[in-house]
Amino acid sequence: MLFEGLRDTATLTIAPGIVLKYTAVHGPVFLVFGVAAAGLFALAEFNTLHPWAILGGNLVAAVVMLGILFAIIISPSMRR
Question: How many domains does the chain have?
Fold first, then answer.
């Protein structure tokens, strides 16, 4: 969708349309991520987090990332 089915970077032709699509997708994504991160930092300043909450969040994130990693390794259809 974003790169119009490009599989080989050697055949890439940089055109204004592709650059605009890339920017149109990534600009808002980074903006949302930045606003969300700023909101989390503001929340953290307002409410002091307990160490067990931080460790629990890190544990959940690690389990999710390992699950995705193993799903990609086990399932060949996800290797695209």
Answer: 2
